Amino acid sequence: MLEVSELISQKTGLNFSIADSVVLRTGRKAKRATLKLGSMKLSVMFIEVSKTFNFLEEFKDILGLSEYERVIIYTSQLLDEEKKFLKEHRIGYIDYLGNFYFPLDIVSGDSAKTEELRIVARSPSALNEFPIGFLFFQNFGLLEITQADIGKQIGKSAATVNLVLKRMEREKLIVKTDKGYHLANIENYFERWRFITSQYKSKFEHGRFKSQLSDEEFKMLLKSHLSESKWAFSGPRVETLLGDGYLQEAKELSIFIEMKSQKALFKDLKLVPSNTGEIVVYSSTFDLREKGQVAHEILICAELFNSNNPRIKEAGQRRFEKYFAQAKKVMNERFGHKYF
What we know:
Blueprint: H1 4-12, E1 15-23, E2 29-37, E3 40-48, H2 55-58, H3 60-63, E4 71-75, H4 80-88, E5 92-95, E6 100-101, H5 115-121, H6 125-138, E7 142-143, H7 147-154, H8 158-170, E8 174-177, E9 180-183, H9 186-204, E10 205-211, H10 215-224, E11 231-234, H11 236-242, E12 253-257, H12 262-269, E13 271-273, E14 279-283, E15 289-291, E16 294-295, H13 297-305, H14 310-335
Parallel strand pairs: 3-4, 4-5, 12-14
Antiparallel strand pairs: 1-2, 2-3, 5-6, 7-9, 8-9, 10-13, 10-14, 11-12, 15-16
């Protein structure tokens, strides 16, 4: 079996270092490590389990740990019901097929054991951060609108927005100035946000499908930009069909949609349910599009970055470098050549 260090690097592209190996009181072997998400460092415990594990037996000594540790198990393969079980108990996982979930809802950038931080760390604020982070990227790092307006755009209350912004400010992810809130460092924050993307998607996955459309029919549909429907297409397949041919045979496709429009979506794309389908539909309460139905550039970058395919990751890196250069120019113009 692969070492956990190789597995994490290959499947997630995250920066991390193994601190030490430990033996728990139950005799189970574990590895402590530090994951780096942008400017934030997380302490985690990796526990290897065999493919023949029995949930009731194997997790007796793990379920209790997950209340106090960011526990992540790694194994050869996980079934859908097993992944669901782990998510429900806030236990992270990664398997050799590239399936992974890290419990960011219990993540805090500050290790101080205060009651306030424990409450925030166990709240769903990391998921709520996803749409707010998107608005920051959409506006090249700066938000000049009120918290009430932010809430209206993402379908959240002003109180929720206030909670997330305060936490982000406390963790030095954003800075408040007379121009509003802006990201402290766009490049570093992208590392964190693209990872939160996978958590958001795992939370709001609606279903997997296959399409009866040919690639040419799909291409025509993507180019038509049916702006009356709130669909956001993203993923390697979009880049394959609309790009310069760099990504070939990349069939992964994500669709973010307001579920009120699902009937029209299924009809126009001729989707049929499939457990092994490469088209994944996610429900969304806010609009992730840039023009027509193609997702905003920053979401496309995150989707490509999060792929297990090295070539697709490279394509994401190249696209983000272009976005970052543009964002840096905008930020410098706003703040007089003082880039944050």
